[in-house]
Amino acid sequence: MIPRALRQLAGDSASGAPVVVEGGSPGHVRVESTDLINMASNDYLGLARHPRVVAAAGDAIRRWGLGTASTRPLSGTTGLHRRLEQRLADWSGTDDAVLFGSCWTANAAVFEMLAELSNRVGATLAVFSDQLNHASIIDAIRAQRATLSHLSRYERGSEASLRDGLAGQPATAVKVIVTDGVFSMEGDQADLATLVKLADEHDALLVVDDSHGLGVVGTTGRGTAEAQGVLCSVDVVTGTLGKALGGASGGFVATTSDLSAWLRTGSRPFVFSNNPSVPVVAGALAALDILSDDSEPLATLRSRTDQLRRGVAGLGLPSVSGDHPIVPVIIGDDDAAREVSRSLRRLGVFATALTFPIVARGAARLRLQASAAHTVEDIDRVLDALDRACAQRGMLPARARNSAPADASSRFDDGSGS
Fold first, then answer.
1. pLDDT tens digits for 23-81?
2. Is the pLDDT of residue 17 over 50?
3. Does the keyword ATP-binding apply (predicted)?
4. Domains in the chain and their CATH numbers?
5. Closest to 46 in 3D by CA, of 312, 385, 296, 311
6. Longest CA–CA separation in the chain, Å
7. Helix (H) and strand (E) counts in the chain
8. How confident is the model over 188-202, as pLDDT tens digits?
9. 334 exposed, middle or buried (CB, 10 Å; 0-12, 13-18, 19+)?
């Protein structure tokens, strides 16, 4: 029997019934029989419904079925899994890659590996983690907390303190710097160029979770390291197949050949848990093919991102500058953010409110996410709905309210119409 106190606490913490999605189309989702522009998806390149991705997944189902029904060490590895691992390694600028069920388990596997290998060679393990890292990194470190000789959280921009912390560790310590490439709440990037330099200076290992960077930033979409000119200089890259690369599920670790070999034999998340299903792997391979030979999805994404960012700035709403398709609209109060989200849905836009404990108290927001699947008209409708929803709550500066033209599309149209 579940104790009454636990049930009471769980009930008090409930946030209501989940939103049930009934279907959708590129850039749109259907909820309660209503078509909404989907601004809450990580389908950055619009490839989740791309005909080549869907066809590749369908062909894989017909050949392999839904999955292998076991782990790879037991049932063997399909050629598709190895092809994808090799492609991801090349894309990330590393020797090899290993697939996992999710990037969450990939991050867990990385720190399990580092703790185990450090222990075997009799070295201490010192970890320096950005204070705004993703929850999967935080939990991966927590799981190995008993084995750490040092753990500190550093602030971006405080390179001097990070340098001092690294210098203060014994020469025999395994030192690890870990960061998101792109931070998911605000779309800003870690300073990888500086972190690579610090890692080199102090013989430290650099781990980067680039889930929101791969396929999105960099000249060819190869991620944050490419964007900052340090591709092939990051020791361990983790990422997901659940965002730009098809939008399904699955994660990976891209690193050296020897560490990859250890992960395949010594990592509990790999050995004791199923890998991504064959259709997902085939779809991700097709997504990488599209990204490699067709520049249009990335170019369209950047156009829509610029349109959205300029529009939010034109409304005078608090946001965070940058060029990533994550565009936060900072509301502050949790209840106000939820109400704006509900208003947007009534106006035809699906945008989820992010509140405590997902973000800090007083930092509630809407996280708008542009996609190549959005049309120019979609973004115009989003901006119009945002204008109306925020004006209803008196959130727009007077200047922005008075100057916002009725034909907002004329300010943002890039001429492409798609």
1. 999 999 999 999 999 999 999 999 999 999 999 999 999 999 998 899 999 999 999 99
2. yes
3. no
4. 19-48+295-408 (3.90.1150.10), 51-292 (3.40.640.10)
5. 296
6. 68
7. 17, 14
8. 999 999 999 999 999
9. middle
Q: Is pLDDT of 151 > 80?
A: yes
Catalytic residues: 184, 212, 243
110-132 as b/e: b if 16+ CB within 10 A: bbbbbbbebeeeeebbbbbbbeb
The dihedrals phi and psi of 154, each to the nearest 5 degrees, come to: -105, 155
* Alpha carbon distance 68, 78 (integer Å): 9
pTM of this structure: 0.92
| Tokens matching residue 198 | 């610090």
The DSSP code sequence of 376-390 is HHHHHHHHHHHHHHH
Tokens 């106000």 found at: 336
Neighbours of 145 (CB within 10 A): 11
Token pair recorded at residue 364: 């509630």
Separation between Cα atoms, residue 118 and residue 79, nearest integer Å: 33
Exposure class string for 225-263: b at 16+ Cβ within 10 A, else e:
bbbbebbebbbbbbbbbbbbbbbbebbbbbbeeebbebb
One-letter identity of residue 201? E
